[in-house]
Write a structure and sequence with these properties.
By secondary structure, this protein is an alpha+beta fold. Helices cover 27% and strands 33% of the residues. The chain has helices at residues 2-20, 36-52, and strands at residues 55-58, 65-70, 77-85, 89-92, 108-118, 121-130.
Length: 135
């Protein structure tokens, strides 16, 4: 089960990279892998990119591990800890491909994702960046 939760987490990151890489994405693919605050935060990020008229190029890298899993809970829950590396995932102008990364951007940080199992699928419902902890 932990492997399935980890797979859903990685799929969520791939869906973000895909959505954030397009100027016309509505982010609907994110709904397959997240809900609650994690989904709303991801959609806000997408809208901020659209408003700034930039896209993301490349992809984030992860070193995720399952830290806890509770299969007796209703719904079942899992906690994933990750070292998120954004150094290969950059904001660019969609036409010129000129770099548009904000100043002071943190390229590596520890993050914790909380997941719930819903109708045979793991969904990320909370994602917390620990910006004071690098990895």
């Amino acid at each position: 089960m932990g492997r399935l939760a980890l797979s859903a987490y990685q799929d969520w990151w791939r869906a973000q990279a895909e959505a954030y890489g397009r100027t016309d994405s509505d982010g609907s693919a994110l709904e397959q892998y997240s809900s609650g605050r994690a989904l709303s935060d991801a959609l806000v990020g997408l809208h901020q990119l659209h408003d700034a008229k930039v896209v993301m190029t490349g992809a984030p890298r992860n070193s995720a591990v399952v830290k806890a899993i509770d299969l007796k809970a209703d719904p079942q829950t899992a906690v994933i800890e990750d070292c998120v590396d954004l150094s290969g995932w950059r904001r660019v102008d969609p036409v010129t491909r000129a770099a548009k990364d904000p100043g002071g951007r943190l390229d590596r940080y520890v993050a914790t994702a909380s997941l719930r199992r819903f109708q045979a699928h793991w969904l990320i419902y909370e994602f917390t960046r620990e910006v004071d902890r690098t990895c």
